[in-house]
Amino acid sequence: MKYLRMSKTNGAGVLFVLLAAISWSTAGLFTRVVTTDIPTTLFWRSLSGGLCVLGIAMAAQRSKDIRAAFTFSRGEAVIASLSAAGMICFISAFFHTTIANVVFVYGTMPLVTFIISLVFLGARADAVSLGCCVLSAAGVAVMASGNSLPSDFLGIGLAFGMTFFMAALTVATKFFPNANIKKTTYLSAFMAAIVTAPFATFGNTIPVDYFWLLLYGVVSVSMGFGVYMLGVKRVSALVAALVGLTEIPLAPIWAWLLFDERMTIVVLLGGLVILTSAVIYIANSEKSEEETDYRTLQEDRQ
User: Looking at residue 295, what is its pLDDT?
Assistant: First the structure.
C-alpha cells in the first residue's frame, strides 16, 4: 500500500510539473495576440502576475502581518533583480524573433548554469558536461544559421540575455539558500513593472488587450509558479527538470498551430541538438550527484 501511495504522489507531481510547463509554453503566444508595445506588455503582464503570486503567498501563510510580505532580505532582492532582468529580456525577445528561436535558446540554460557554476561555485567539470556544452553551442550555431533577418539576431541576443540572467538566478539561490521563493517571484514581477512603467503607453490600450495582458500574468506567472511548486515537492529534481523541458518543443508547436509560425528545417535541427544536449546534461548531473552521495555515505560508515 505504501508503494501505491508513493506512485500516486509521484504521478501527481509529474502532472503538476507538466501543467506548469504547458502554461509557460504559452508565454510567446500572448505577444502575438496583443497590439501593445513591449514596455506596455511587460508592465501589465508583470503587475497582474505579481499581484496574483502575492495573493497566493499571503493566502498560504495566512498571516495578517502585511509588513512581512514586503520585507525582503538581500538575497531575495538579488534573486528578484536577476529574475526581473531575465523577464524583460524574455518578453522583449518574442517581439523581435520567432517563438521557436527564443525557446530553443532558453534550452541552453542548464548548460549556461553549469558554466557559471564553474566560475563562481567551483563546480567540478567532467567530460560529459563539457561535451554537452560543445554540443549545445553547435546547436545554437546551426539554429542561428537558419535565420537571415537582423531582427531575428536581436531577438536571439535578447533570448541569450534572458538565459544568462535565469542561469545566474539559479546560481544565486546557492549563495542565498534561505531566500523565500514566493517573495522573490512577486518582487521580481513588481520590479519589472516599475522599470517599464515610464515607457508604457496607457491611453491607446484597447479593452481586449487588457484582458489578454491580465490573463498573460495569471497564466505565465502565477499559474505556472503555483502549480510548479506543488509538483517539485512530489518528484525528484531530475524528473522536474526533464518534464519541465517539455516547454521547449511545446512552444513552437502552439505557435505553428495557432499563428502558422513555421520553423525551417535548419532551425528545427538546431533546436533538437540543443534539447538533446540539455537532456543528456541533466541526466548526467543527477547521476553524478547520486554517486557523490553514495561515496559520502560509504566514507561516513567507515
Answer: 46
pLDDT given for residue 143 in this prediction: 92
Residue 171 confidence (pLDDT): 84
For the chain of 302 residues, list the mean pLDDT of each consecutive stretch of 10: 45 85 91 95 93 83 73 92 94 94 91 85 82 92 87 93 90 85 89 96 88 90 72 72 85 93 92 92 72 44 44
Q: HSE on the CB side for 110, CA within 13 Å?
A: 28
pLDDT value at residue 164: 94
pLDDT at 55: 85
Residues 6+ apart with CB under 8 A from 36: 44, 201, 205, 209, 213
In terms of Cα–Cα distance, which of 88, 92, 106, 96 is closest to 153?
Answer: 96
C-alpha distance across the termini of the chain, in Å: 35
Question: What grid cell was written down for 245?
Answer: 523541458
The C-alpha atoms of residue 254 and residue 248 are separated, in whole angstroms, by 11
Q: Which three cell numbers stand for residue 76?
A: 531575495
Q: Radius of gyration (Cα) for the chain, nearest Å?
A: 20
- DSSP string for residues in 219-262: IIIIIHHHHHHHHHTTS-HHHHHHHHTTHHHHHHHHHHHHH---
Q: Where are the domains of the chain?
A: 23-301
Q: Is 71 exposed, middle or buried (0-12, 13-18, 19+ CB in 10 A)?
A: exposed
Q: Tell me which residue has cell 559520502.
A: 296
CB-based contact 184:80 (threshold 8 Å): yes
Yes or no: say if 36 and 208 are a contact pair by the CB < 8 Å rule: no
Give the DSSP per-residue string, 55-85: HHHHHHHT---HHHHT---HHHHHHHHHHHH
206 — phi, psi (to 5°)?
-85, 155
Q: What is the pLDDT of residue 1?
A: 40
